[in-house]
TrEMBL record:
Organism: Belnapia mucosa
One matching Pfam family: GntR
Domain HTH gntR-type: 1-66
InterPro entries the UniProt entry points to: AsnC-type_HTH_dom, GntR_C, TF_FadR/GntR_C, Tscrpt_reg_HTH_GntR, WH-like_DNA-bd_sf, WH_DNA-bd_sf
Keywords per UniProt: DNA-binding, Transcription, Transcription regulation
Protein name: GntR family transcriptional regulator
Length: 217
């Protein structure tokens, strides 16, 4: 139940019900989820350990702040992990079937993107990149990526708040094609291009505009 509560909080952030910097009130979240405050309290502590929630004296729990500089720093770490994942995935034994899971995750993303729910899109995007890390066969690498995944979810969710900003399905396919072909240089270049859209996106502007609207709209 704690994990479910944590996922619900992240999903609410992706849908714009919570914005970066918003206070997260334990009693209100418990009421909205229809559960007791205990699992919500534990979920908030879990999210705090993952950097999604920040506890400030006299101000309570708040959703992480999102700034352009902070996103750029997060993406540098994320890109370094995923580039290592590409190199190690290509070094694994086997043929193109090594990337069947990645292809399945790409297909799921393409389907979910048509539904238009920001929370589902964020989850599907995260699953695709987690699958890339899983293909590396490097368990610590995957664990490190997963430790960042909920911060990425908050960032990606904010990007969805003004409507679809991009359609990465073709980029997913291009990356998979390079991996299946065993072309490391092309795979790394396509991955870098795929990730670096975040650097040209003005998250601070979107957040400022989003704060002018009622929550959830």
């Amino acid at each position: 139940m704690v994990e479910q509560a944590a996922e619900a909080i992240v999903a609410a952030a992706a849908r714009g019900l919570f914005l970066p910097g918003d206070r997260l009130v334990e009693a209100e979240i418990a009421r909205d989820l229809g559960i007791s405050r205990v699992p919500v309290r534990e979920a908030l502590r879990l999210l705090e350990s993952q950097g999604i929630v920040v506890s400030t004296p006299y101000k309570g729990m708040r959703l992480m702040q999102v700034t352009n500089a902070g996103v750029a720093a997060l993406m540098r770490v994320r890109l370094a992990l995923e580039m290592l994942a590409v190199r190690e995935a290509l070094a694994q034994p086997g043929g193109p079937e090594r990337f069947n899971g990645l292809a399945a995750a790409a297909a799921t993303y393409a389907h979910v993107a048509q539904l238009g729910d920001p929370a589902l899109i964020v989850v599907a995007d995260g699953d695709f990149h987690a699958e890339l890390c899983r293909a590396s066969g490097n368990a610590p690498l995957l664990a490190l990526w997963q430790s960042l995944s909920r911060q990425l979810a908050v960032v990606w969710g904010l990007a969805q708040q003004t409507g679809p900003v991009r359609t990465p399905e073709a980029e997913h396919r291009a990356l998979i094609e390079a991996l299946v072909a065993g072309d490391e240089a092309t795979a790394l270049a396509r991955l870098e291009q795929h990730v670096n859209w975040n650097l040209s996106f003005d998250f601070e502007r979107v957040l400022a505009e989003r704060r002018k609207l009622p929550a959830g709209l």
